[in-house]
Every structure is written in C-alpha cells, then in structure tokens.
Design goal:
Elements (H helix, E strand, L loop, with lengths): L13 H11 L4 E5 L2 E5 L10 E2 L17 H17 L5 E5 L5 H9 L3 E11 L13 E4 L4 H11 L4 H11 L4 E7 L5 E10 L2 E9 L8 H15 L4 E7 L3 H9 L3 E10 L10
Parallel strand pairs: 9-10
Antiparallel strand pairs: 1-2, 2-3, 4-11, 5-10, 5-11, 6-7, 7-8, 8-9
C-alpha cells in the first residue's frame, strides 16, 4: 500500500527536529534556564513534564556550563530539581542519545537517574505520496472529537477526566489534523494526529483499540495523515515510537520512515518518606 520514500527529507539538523517536537507537544508551563527549557503540565505525559536540554545550531548544549565543567552541570541539575519540586513533580530529563549528551548522562548516572521509555525518532520525505486508501473512509478534522479523545485516551491515557483535560490542551496548542476510522458497524477503530509545525508534519497519538488491531485500521489512519500532509506541501514528516513497539516500527518502516535518532527519559530516584514502623 505504501511506497517507500527515496531516503530522508531534505537534510535537517538535530536541533531542528528537537524544536519541532517541542512545538508539536507543548507544555502548559515552561521556563528558560539558560537555554535549557523546563516544562510542566500537571504531570500529564513525560514529554510535557521534562527538561529539554536545548542545543545551539552547532549541537552544543547552550546556556549551561561547558561539558568539562561537571560541577557546573550538577548545579544546573540542582536548580532544575528545585523548579520541579515546587510543582510537586519528579525531575525528568529528555536526553537525546548521542555523544553530545555524554557529560549530562554522566552526571545523571552519578545521581542514579533511571532510564525510561527509550524512543526512536523516524523521518521521511514526501516522495511516493499520496498513497492509496484501500476503500476505507477516514474522517479528518481540525479538532479532536469526543470519540477521538476517548479512543486515544483509552489506549494511551494515564489518569482520569482531569488528566484528559490537560492532554486536550496540549493536543490543541498547535495547528493539527485528527484522523479517525470506523469499522463496518460504525464503531471507532483507530485514530491519529498530524501536528503541523513550521512546514513539517508530526505523526502523533496513533492508537487502535484492542479488538481492531491487525486489521489495517492503523495503516489507513497513517495513509490519510500522510496524504493530507502531502496536499499541504510539507517538507517532510517525523514521528516517535518506543523502542519496544516492534509492530509500530514495522508499520512506519513500510510507510517509508527511516531512523533519525533516539532519546530516553532520565528520572531522578523517588525519595520516600521514612516509615512510621
């Protein structure tokens, strides 16, 4: 169904992809600490509640001490920890996996930060688009319907109505398209989101209900979002997929996406109060 892309889109810098990702899933509260960005959204999703060690155009972490200044990096980490403590949130760093993160990782290792949710970044250009839709009708909208939200939250959500309300604010904070496909009985089967940022398209919130998996619904949603992006003459697409989700990785590879990089969340160890026993 999908035609493979002829390689990645026009050469793009790591710093550009990081910026696109930040804009596509923006935190409700953010504060610059040098050039690091501290992000908080009432604990809803790691992405919107983590430190982004933003990089300059040459890839060097900016606004923090030189990589050789371990004491300076430790001081910057302590300052970030105070910011999150005031919000009663754990300290989490979104650390991109490359040699430039070595100094920060060394500090976090020394403080016993855990490694969580290892995630691949994948990209593709617009070659080979549009692609076929195999007869299924995918509904596209500029805002998420209640059916869209409920399906996505049932598959990927963590929490109740209050957390869903926060997630809705994050989702709708940038221009986007929402795709939903139904089964033959009209029951919502799968959803997805295309974030439209700076001439690029980010594929997010791909979710299929348990009873509808392995029946092509996710493929249809992805095709519809890619076609919609091609109609808008986007420069390229990116998406994020956890390292453990091999099924999704296969789907995206067949759709022409290639590996671009990866990141991991580093979380400070939780400090438990002493027991009364």
């Amino acid at each position: 169904m999908f035609l493979p892309a002829k390689g990645a889109p026009t050469v793009v810098e790591q710093s550009t992809i990081e910026t696109l990702m930040d804009k596509a899933w923006p935190a409700l509260e953010r504060e610059a600490a040098g050039e690091w960005v501290l992000r908080a959204s009432d604990g809803v999703t790691q992405r919107a509640n983590s430190v982004w060690p933003k990089r300059t155009s040459n890839g060097v972490p900016a606004g923090v001490p030189a990589s050789s200044d371990r004491a300076g990096i430790e001081a910057a980490v302590r300052s970030a920890a105070q910011w999150y403590r005031k919000r009663r949130l754990p300290v989490i760093f979104q650390v991109f996996e490359d040699s430039r993160s070595a100094a920060l990782n060394s500090v976090l290792d020394g403080q016993r930060f855990t490694r969580q949710s290892e995630t691949r970044i994948m990209v593709r250009g617009t070659d080979g688009l549009p692609v076929g839709a195999s007869g299924m009708r995918v509904e596209l909208a500029e805002n998420p319907s209640d059916e869209w939200l409920r399906l996505w939250w049932a598959v990927d959500g963590r929490g109740g109505e209050a957390e869903l309300s926060v997630a809705h604010k994050i989702l709708t904070a940038c221009p986007e398209l929402y795709a939903l496909v139904r089964d033959d009985d009209g029951v919502p089967a799968a959803v997805g989101r295309l974030a439209l940022v700076d001439g690029w398209g980010g594929i997010y919130s791909m979710a299929t209900t348990t009873g509808h998996r392995r029946r092509g619904y996710g493929t249809q949603v992805l095709a519809a979002l890619l076609n919609a992006g091609a109609e808008r003459e986007l420069e390229g697409f990116w998406l994020l997929v956890t390292e453990s989700n091999h099924g999704a990785q296969s789907l995206y590879s067949q759709a022409g996406f290639t590996d671009f990089g990866s990141y991991v969340y580093r979380q400070a160890p939780l400090k438990r109060a002493l027991s009364g026993c």
